[in-house]
Every structure is written in structure tokens, then in C-alpha cells.
Design brief:
Shape of chain A: globular
Largest sheet of chain B: 7 strands, mixed
Number of helices of chain B: 0
Distance between the termini of chain B: 37 Å
Helix content of chain A: under 10%
Number of strands of chain B: 11
Distance between the termini of chain A: 41 Å
Largest interface: A-B, 22 and 23 residues
Oligomer: heterodimer
Order of helices and strands of chain B: EEEEEEEEEEE
Structural class of chain A: mainly beta
Order of helices and strands of chain A: EEEEEEEEEEE
Strand content of chain A: over 45%
Radius of gyration of chain B: 13 Å
Largest sheet of chain A: 6 strands, mixed
Radius of gyration of chain A: 13 Å
Structural class of chain B: mainly beta
Strand content of chain B: over 45%
């Protein structure tokens, strides 16, 4: 089955700096890679996703890149703000299989 | 986006009792729902995949007789934690996919279960 590795587990950045979180996956059949943001005690919220036919996707300060050959994908947050502080999870899967999540990255943006 | 409603949001029960958690897709039909468990400061771990009208598929290490899953309709799946013990205390979250969209997963609010 699919296995997703996520790094780093914790990340602290100064406000205004960029943050990068990286994930690798094992199943070459996976074709959907979402990123979720989870605040304490709340449900995960989808912030951006990418499908395997696309190499990069951007939405304002958030971007995701995908390298299918190397089986890794990354989340980039630019101009970080204190409200970006949360736990971020990457996931991988297909339309017919459940998502497998990485272990999460706790991002702290220091004002 | 699509709405998934999960109830209750929190529950405290005595050891040995059973607790039922409901997960509803409010504005779409979900042939498949997924149940996850999340321990403090850990990731979401898939417990089981719930298919409408058929038996759930459990992940390795998850006791199917302890975590009863029923998916009787295209909009409702339930998870019953039977004979709960303190080690079952956790955050349980359901997820559903809109079959029309096929990939994006929507999460319920989660249920924080505390067994005392």
C-alpha cells in the first residue's frame, strides 16, 4: 500500500519568511496529492491540491510542486503570517482509494 | 465545498459503555466514507473504509468487533465504539468524497471521545 513520509515534523519561521514542507510517496499509482491545514481540535481543511498531470500549482501565497519521477511533492508558503501557524498534512491517493496522510508538520510563524 | 457533518463533537463515557458517532454528507452522495483516528499531536490514521450497503474494510490492527461501522445510506455512516476503554480516548474524524468530484475529500468536524 501507499506510504507517505513528511518532513520536517516541526518548523519555525519568522513572519514574512517562506516555509517549505516536503513529502514523499511510495505508490506510483497515486495521482492526487492534497495538503490540509489543521488547527488545534478542528477538522483538517484542504488548502491546495495537485493532480499527477500537473507539475506545479499556485494559489496566492501557497504553491505546491510535484515530481512524479522522484515521487515527491512540496508545499511552499511565502510571506508567512502568524495565522499560518497550524499543523499541515500532506496526503496521497487516487480517486478510488482512501488518502494516506503524512505525519504532519507543526508550523510556527513568529511575529 | 461539500459539507460533511459529524456528531457528536465531543462525548465523555464510562469505561465499558458504547458510543455511536454519526457522519452525514449533507449536500452530496457518498458511496464511500472513511473513518480516521487521531491521537494527540499525531497524524490521521485510517481505521476503516465504509462502503454503502456492504461491509466495511478495516485496516490492519483495527478490531472490527470493537469498532462497528454501518453505512446504510449514501449520506450516513456510523461508527460505534463498543465496550470503550480509556485507551480508546481519541479524536475520531470521518471523511467522505463526492462521487461527482471523485478526488477531493471533505472531513467532518471530528468527535473527541474521552473514556473515563
Amino acid at each position: 500500500g501507499e506510504n507517505v513520509e513528511q518532513h520536517p515534523s516541526t518548523l519555525s519561521v519568522q513572519e514574512g519568511d517562506s516555509a517549505v514542507i516536503k513529502c514523499t510517496y511510495s505508490d506510483s499509482a497515486s495521482n492526487y496529492f492534497p495538503w490540509y491545514k489543521q488547527e488545534l481540535g478542528k477538522r483538517p481543511q484542504l488548502i491546495i491540491d495537485i493532480r499527477s498531470n500537473v507539475g506545479e500549482k499556485k494559489d496566492q501565497r501557497i504553491a505546491v510542486t510535484l515530481n512524479k519521477t522522484a515521487k515527491h511533492f512540496s508545499l511552499h508558503i511565502t510571506e508567512t503570517q502568524p495565522e499560518d501557524s497550524a499543523v499541515y498534512f500532506c496526503a496521497a491517493g487516487t480517486g478510488n482509494t482512501p488518502l494516506v496522510f503524512g505525519k504532519g508538520t507543526r508550523l510556527s510563524v513568529i511575529a | 465545498g461539500a459539507v460533511v457533518s459529524q456528531h457528536p463533537s465531543w462525548v465523555i463515557c464510562k469505561s465499558g459503555t458504547s458510543v455511536k458517532i454519526e457522519c452525514r454528507s449533507l449536500d452530496f452522495q457518498a458511496t464511500t466514507m472513511f473513518w480516521y483516528r487521531q491521537f494527540p499531536k499525531q497524524s490521521l490514521m485510517l481505521m476503516a473504509t465504509s462502503n454503502e450497503g456492504s461491509k466495511a474494510t478495516y485496516e490492519q490492527g483495527v478490531e472490527k468487533d470493537k469498532f462497528l461501522i454501518n453505512h446504510a445510506s449514501l449520506t450516513l455512516s456510523t461508527l460505534t465504539v463498543t465496550s470503550a476503554h480509556p485507551e480508546d480516548s481519541s479524536f475520531y474524524i470521518c471523511s467522505a468524497r463526492d462521487i461527482a468530484r471523485s478526488t477531493e475529500a471533505f472531513f467532518g468536524q471530528g468527535t473527541r471521545l474521552t473514556v473515563v
